[in-house]
Write a structure and sequence with these properties.
Distance between the termini: 47 Å
Radius of gyration: 21 Å
Oligomer: single chain
CATH topology: Cytochrome p450
CATH class: Mainly Alpha
Largest sheet: 5 strands, mixed
Number of domains: 1
Length: 416
């Protein structure tokens, strides 16, 4: 049986996970979360509050019943993320665990350390650098060719929303006929916080699909990522299929979705500051600084939840064991104690650590690939779209959302 016949769509094929997920991640109050967080931080570092409720978004159904706290101060955020024995990633068993399974995200040390060491080898800088020419550039240039003759485009709908996912499809060497349903199921996984039934259904169907992929490629000698991981070993033993399938389930979201959001926000920052865009256009050595500033200014994920393993006191606030504690990494990146004029996008800012890819043991394993993809994407846009600028016929782009933020559109013009 051909593999392309093995992937199954949602039972309700009309279900739209894209609309469901975007609705769940938007602030229904329309409020800029950073303004509210800055006001709160002036009063203290820790609050007994639900961040989603604060901004008028649908509640996370998977976290129902837990006491909820927000941590806004930079020192306290760092303490939470670097002290896993007190603040555990096992909180993700309630949502990520339901849809992704036994992925790295739900694990604490020593289990997390053991598996991460192996997976990390596949995403080291020397490895992902080689993917630039073979995987990234063909996708980026192919997408640009679809609209470069028009002289205008929406860079979100026509470019950033697609290119990191298409790169992952190539990494996995997916059959072309599977891609549309595969992407739909992958996005369906992330709907788990507001639509548990469809999230679980997507998990089951992707799990069955990946199990067949692993079986088919385990002894095939291929060089794609599925084949590589299927043959990987720890201490002479192959990785359990449960862990492999869970990692692959999460990959499309962890690598594709965050890069799409980060690249979109990078474009907003540069296009909204034409003098900085011109500086980057003239001197491409400024691209790394522009990427780091975008990750600080608008990180793709602004909250890192943890579960308190015992009663703790932070900033004088007593927090019980078994509470959800949201380390507001977005607030860390906008802390005026660390950054001058933190709400301003400035590629000339003095280099300083940010939490655009989180922090601690669970820092993003795909961060090196994301930077390669963002670098190649920006270079290609500047090379092939002369005089790239915002389209005056459309409102200026705005980054929206509660936790996973992104501009809905980035309308541009350019010379042909």
């Amino acid at each position: 049986m051909a593999l392309s016949n093995r992937i199954a769509d949602f039972d309700d094929a009309a279900f739209d996970p894209f609309a469901t997920f975007e609705s769940a991640t938007q602030s229904h109050s329309g409020e800029d979360p950073y303004r509210r967080l800055a006001e709160m931080r002036r009063q203290g570092s820790v609050f007994e509050l639900d961040y989603r409720e604060l901004l008028g978004s649908p509640p996370d159904l998977t976290m129902a019943g837990l006491p909820k706290y927000m941590v806004l101060g930079a020192a306290d955020i760092q303490h939470v993320l670097e002290t896993p024995q007190l603040f555990s990633n096992t909180i993700f068993e309630r949502n990520v665990g339901l849809c992704f399974g036994r992925s790295l995200t739900v694990m604490d040390a020593p289990e997390h350390t053991r598996y991460r060491r192996l997976f990390q080898k596949a995403f080291m800088p020397n490895v992902v650098a080689k993917w630039g020419d073979t995987l990234v550039d063909p996708v980026v240039h192919g997408l640009i060719e679809n609209f470069r003759a028009k002289g205008r485009a929406d860079l979100v709908r026509e470019f950033t929303q697609h290119y990191p996912f298409q790169i992952i499809y190539r990494q996995l060497d997916l059959p072309q006929d599977d891609i549309a349903v595969f992407h739909k199921l992958a996005v369906g996984l992330t709907c788990i916080v507001v639509d548990v039934a469809h999230g679980v259904e997507a998990s089951q169907k992707l799990g069955a699909y990946y199990a067949l992929l692993l079986e088919e490629r385990r002894n095939g000698g291929g060089s794609d990522l599925v084949s590589t991981l299927a043959q990987a070993e720890i201490d002479g033993e192959r990785l359990p299929d449960e862990v492999l399938v869970s990692f692959l389930r999460q990959l499309i979201n962890a690598a594709g979705d965050t890069t799409y959001r980060a690249t979109s926000s990078l474009l907003v920052g540069l296009l909204s500051n034409p003098e900085q865009l011109d500086a980057v256009r003239r001197d491409r050595a400024l691209i790394p600084a522009a990427i780091e500033e975008a990750l600080r200014w608008e990180p793709p994920v602004t909250v890192c939840p943890r579960l308190t393993m015992q009663p703790v006191v932070l900033d004088g606030v007593e927090i019980p064991a078994g509470a959800e504690i949201d380390a507001m990494t977005g607030a860390y990146n906008r802390d005026p104690g660390r950054y001058d004029e933190p709400d301003r996008f400035d590629i000339g800012r003095r280099p300083q650590r940010h939490m655009g890819f989180a922090y601690g043991q669970h820092v993003c394993i795909g961060q090196h690939l994301a930077r390669v993809e963002m670098t190649r994407a920006l270079n290609a846009l500047l090379d092939h779209l002369p005089n790239l600028r915002l389209d005056p016929d459309h409102p200026p782009p705005q980054v929206l959302g509660v936790n996973m933020r992104v501009p809905p559109a980035v309308h541009v013009r350019f010379d042909t």
